[in-house]
Structures are given as C-alpha cells and as structure tokens.
Design brief:
This protein has 15 helices and 13 strands. The protein is of the alpha/beta class and 363 residues long. The protein is globular and about 105 Å long.
Amino acid sequence: MNELAVYPLLAVVGQPEMKTALTLALINPAIGGVLLSGPYGVGKTTAVRGLLDIMPTVIRTRCDNNCPVEVADALELCAECRERLAHGEPRVIADLMRLIELPLNARLEDIVGGLNERVAIEQQRVLLEQGILARAHNNVLYIDEINLLEPALLDLILDAAAQGRTFVRRGAMVRLYPSQFVLIGSMNPEEGRLRPQILDRLGLRVWITPHLAVEQRLEIYRRAVAFRQNRDEFRVRYAAETAALKLEVDVARAILPQVKVAPQAEELALRTISALNIPSHRAEIVLLEAARARAAADERTEASADDVLAVAPLALRWRSSTHLDEVSAAVEAEDALIAAALAAASSQRRTRSRRKKSPAPSA
C-alpha cells in the first residue's frame, strides 16, 4: 500500500476510543487485538490503515526457512543462515510493522499457504509456500467485515493467533511458520453477529458511534475534500503529531516488559469483572494487559487503578452472556436436586443399616 495514500489516523474527527484501542494494541500485542463495530462510513478501515504512519519497528529474520531470531547455537540454524553468518552478513534486520489485509474472498490456500503450482508445472518439484498467516507474523492482520468471513477460515486464523504458528501440509510435506500478529477486525452489526468464540478472542471492543453534531459532520467532509485535493499537503498538517505518536508507541514498547500491575489495580479489575459476572478468564488478561500498555504509553513502570478505570470499557464491553447466566442457573438448580436426592438416599441407607444392626426383640 502506498503510504502517501494513507489518511492520517489523527486526522479522523473524534473517535478517541477507537484511536486509543488501536494504539494500545500496537504497544502490547498480548491484549489480543481490537474489534471495531459500527455502521458503514464511520471511518473503521480508514483508521486501521492510518496505523501505517505509526507502526513500530520490529526485528525480522531474513531466513526463508523460518529460523528463529534468537538461537543458542549456530547449529540450530539452517545452511543458508549459517552461510550468512560465515560471510559476516546480518541474519536479522530491523523493519517496520506492516499491515496485512485479508480479502473477504480469501481461500484456504491463501490463508494457510500451499503448493506453488508454477514451480510444480515448470520444475516438476513440490514447493510449499507461506500464506497470509505466515506473512502476518510480527505484523497487523486486518479483517474487514470479519463477521462475514467463512467460519472454517476464521477458525484457522484464531488457531494461529492462539498457537503463534501455522502449519502447511501437503501429503507427507509439512512446513511450520511462526504466526504472531495483532488481529484487528471490523464489522457492521446490521449484517449479522460475530460468533461468541471469535468475539471472546478479540481483546478490545470499540463501538463507533456516528457523529450527530452538524459541526463535526461538516468537518469530516472538509477534511475528506482537502485530502482528496492534495494528499501531501494534508498529511503535512498532521505530520508533527503523527511523528510524536509513533515515537510514543516505540518508547512504550521498549518500556512495556518492565511494567508491573499495582495490587490495587489488580483488585479493582477482578472485583469489577466479578460484579459483571463475566465468564471468560480472558477478561482479566485483556483488562490488565491494556492497563500495562497505557502505563507504558505514559512512560510509567506501574499500571495503576486509574489505568484500569480508563481501559475497562474497551476491555469488558460485550463480555457478559445472558445465555450462559441462564445455563449456569439451570446447572445450579439441577445440582441442588442431585444433592437433595443424594441426601435422601444416604439417609435411607443409614436407616436400613441401623435396623440391621439392632438386636432382635426377645420372645
């Protein structure tokens, strides 16, 4: 994607929650990504593409055989990497995160990878190529209209996100690719719901409310026109703010490993989750990891209760389940019936036992 075509994230009118969620996800991938939900035309895809201006620097391996970035012994490397080392060539490089967009019409082979048909026909040999999941490693994977993606394909993506790797299998040939990425999905709820399993794995959830104020809508129009007429000039207006935000992301990622969560913040998070009766344990993971990211963004090494308060709506929204509450209540009622039946049966058994032990009355 041409960077000059990117509408600056900070040029998006309003939507502070969306900007915060996307930035925190870049700082701390352990948050588990972001779901942007809202009607058409409110800037979801525009905002995601705006992340290209603030992408952090990551370390990548130059190896086509998926050798890890760090190894204890050079013997663990493939022949190509050992040759690079022998010639004094760098085996890893510093590079900016990339934005990988998943087409809605993507096939299984596109996502997982598969056989290179050209090589198979021309060279009569089998070559397994990486798919989108492998290319998304150390990058951002964006799925627009995620609720419309074929369930089987979405399951593959979630499995890769959970495992941090993906397999390509063709007959006896197997290749393993690292696949750790920031997952961002967007959807219009008018077109259908997202499966609970998928929703649970997307860390921060943003509801993008359309602007109702006339002044805001007019400003959106004016900025859109200005961007269309002269993109370079428009981007310059936000260049300083964007550069500052990019630096903030880079610094925060460096600080993040040292950030701890204060006991008061942990207590507040768990009490809130308990009060909301949220079943998934991912809730506390997302909430506290987002709090750590916010502290890192402020260049602090301790996440406080204020950090939890600030990110809680993003982390805990749409996590309660009325259906699960009903199932839980039914299970508790059934357990009570089982306990009562066991108590009655035990009482009858003790009564019969006492009767057997009682001496027979004398004649």
